[in-house]
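Hi everyone,

Forwarding the result from last night's run.
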Amino acid sequence: MDASLNSVESMGWVIHLLLLVPVLGMALVLALDEKRAKAVALGVALVELLISVPLWTAFDAATPAFQFASRIPWIEPWGISYAVGVDGISVLLVLLTTFMMPITLLGSFKYIQRREKTFYAMMLLLETGVVGVFVALDLFLFFMFWEVMLVPMYFIIGLWGGERRIYAAIKFFLYTAVGSLLMLVAILYVVFKYRAMTGDLSFAYADLVQVSLTLREQVWLFGAFALAFLIKVPVFPFHTWLPDAHVEAPTPGSVMLAAVLLKMGAYGFLRFLLPLFPQAATHPTIVLVLLSLGLVGIVYAAWVAAVQPDAKKLIAYTSVAHMGFVVLGIFALTLQGVQGGMIIMLSHGVSTGAMFLLLGMLYERRHTRKIEDFGGLAAVMPVFAAVFVLTALASIGLPGTSGFVGEFLALIGTFQTHPWVATIGATGVIFAAYYMLPMVQKIVFNALDKEENAKLPDLSRRELAVLAPLVAAMIWIGVYPKPFLERMEASVSALIQQVEAERIAAPPPLSELTGLGARGRAAGD
């Protein structure tokens, strides 16, 4: 075991390259002419994917410790360091990012026709920001990457989006920025609390999780962090930026937004909220509020999705519903629940990313996203229809697909601690069929009564190359999820044990902790 760990620790260069290669690729893309931009960007993304392979092959699933880790002093007077590493919670999200980027870039070859150099440079910068969020073990470094991610996504929506792209881009930026600023204030509070305890400044994750905070402090700091992550997930009622961003973003932007950017919020729950503020995270009132928001998101988003005339907007609302299941799994605080939430993140990234790519391929052919404009595509595009149906079934959780494994585990884990929540949440599976299957029926199987649809070409070889890995991933996770569950189990178990050890048997009412109740006001007087 020790020899294995030493071998893994000596491979810290893997993460350094994962952060550096996209930045170098971005500079190379900007230095070349427009015609070479897409090919170079795709090559860089494929190199990035190859570099990330050791994260799968050499990762030691038996230990909860951070692996491939390294720490280099950066701004020493402020205790800021370049500290990176992965554990079972973050490693799969890094791999999801490096897996999705080349697929997304290949899928954008026909879609992006202007300012190609700038677009592909922004996509590579986005990859650095997202990977940085998942590997940062210093809270200053984490916050820096969190903010870096905003810039390319803002321009991707604002420059290559639809008619209301400026509105959608500004809304996306403002929502995320507001939550980020409050999170920064909370980070600084914890840092100065650490200095008060030890006399040293430090932004290191390993140091800050040791800070002793009162329950009242934890509740307020939890709220500041949680707002940033709830917006990013997004959880109802902080979700309103997402449908606009998805609908107006170009297909590659929608794919990366759904596949990896939304996962940053859920990752924040696991990496920061639970370990830093365990007493607040297990307070019955806070847990009830978060579980309720997750439930509302599941049911509300399903009902809204069912009446959408725009196929892309329908899929956008499904993201809110899927991420609601993730919230249930995480705050059930059981091994099965958290593992289920993690699998849903992977499955949602693959299946919803595939669905946005499929809709983008339709848009390239018909220049419309209205469901009523299609019909009978199975007769003229049989391969497209087959992939479309399989992706839809994975999205609604058909057994044997990736969606089923995650939702089943999340609901089982939630049932162990909150049976009524799991019971209501299970209705979301039925609602998913209610909004997804009619769309499939109208687009693929209805009568071929529009002349424009009768001449549509089936999937090209490039489009097949884009979709084949995603289909394989949906089936692999659905049929044989063991490798994914094994890699996250030790880290998830250690996290749950750490949080449970800090749980207060009889916590006071939340009104006393916030000072908003009658007793709190009296104490303040």
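The first helix runs from residue 2 to 9.

Cheers,
N.
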